[in-house]
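Before a colleague's protein record goes any further, I have to sign it off. What it holds is a sequence and that sequence's fold in C-alpha cell form. My question to you is simply how this chain folds and whether the C-alpha cells agree. Thanks in advance; the entry in question is below:
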Amino acid sequence: MAIVSVPVPYAGKWYFESLLRGLRAGAAAHGHELEVWVEPPGPAARQHVAARLEAQLARPEYVGAVAVHFRLQGEQVERVTRPGKPVVLIGGRSDGLPTVRLDDAAIARDATQHLIDLGHRQIAHLAGLVTAPDDITIRADRVRGYSEAMSAAGLEMQAAVRASSFELADATAAAMSLLSGDDRPTAVFAVVDEVAYGVLEAARRLGLAVPRDVSVIGVDDHEAAAAAGLTTMRQDPAAVGRAAAARLLGETADDDQVVPAELVLRTSTAPPRNGSGGRDRPGLLGRLLRRVAVERSTART
C-alpha cells in the first residue's frame, strides 16, 4: 500500500484528530494510508520536517506528503520537492507549494465585528504565542484581522492584545490577568475555542457572569463548544483534511484553497449592559455547563 507522510506539531488534540480523520478518508479512497508523525514545535522544527520529508519521498512507497501547520519556505521547499512527488501544506502560505487554509484574518474580522455590532467598545484579543512555529501564521493573521475591525470602527486597542498558549491553564491565567482590573474589557475574542474556555473559567473564578459582565467568542466550534454555550467561528477540520487529500492526489488543482468558516451564535455573547463593571456571580446552570466544557477539554488535551 502506498504511503502519504503527514507531519503534525501535536497529537491527541481535537483539531488535529478531526483533520486527520478527513485526510485519512480522502487517502483511503485511493488505496493509500497515512504515516502520521509528530514534530514538536521549536526553532528547528521546519528544518527537521524538510529533512525527513526529503528522505521519505525519495523512497518508492511514499506517494506524497501533507505538512500540517509547518510553513516550509525557500530551501525547505526545494528539499521536499526534489524527489518529484506532491507536497501540500495545511495552514498558512508557502512559496511554491499548494495550500489548504482558513482565511484567518477574515475570520478574526468577522468575530470582532460581531462584538462591535452588539455594541461592545472595549474588546480584547487573547492571541496565540508569537514564537510558536506552528501557530505564528494563525496568531499574526488573527491579530491583523482583529486590529482591522477595531480600527475601522474607530476603537482603541491599547494593551488589548494578550498572548497565551493553547493550553487551558495558560489561557486561564492570561484571562485572569486580563479580567481582574477595574478597566477590564466587556468582550474578549479568543484566538481558538480552547483559549476561550480559559476565559470562561477565569470569569467563573472571578465571579463574572457570561455574557452579562463579559462576552466571549472563539474560533473552531470545538467539540465542547456547544455544551459551554460558546459563540464561535465554526470551521470543519475534517473538510480541510479531505480538501488537502484531494489536492495531493490530483482531484483538484487550486494551489491556494480557502476553506470557509461561519459564525455560530450561542449564549456567550450579548450586548454590554450599563455599568458593565459589576461582579455578580454567574447562575448555577451557566457554571455547570462551563465546568463540563473545561473538564472535557482538559481530558482531551
In short: The first helix runs from residue 14 to 28.
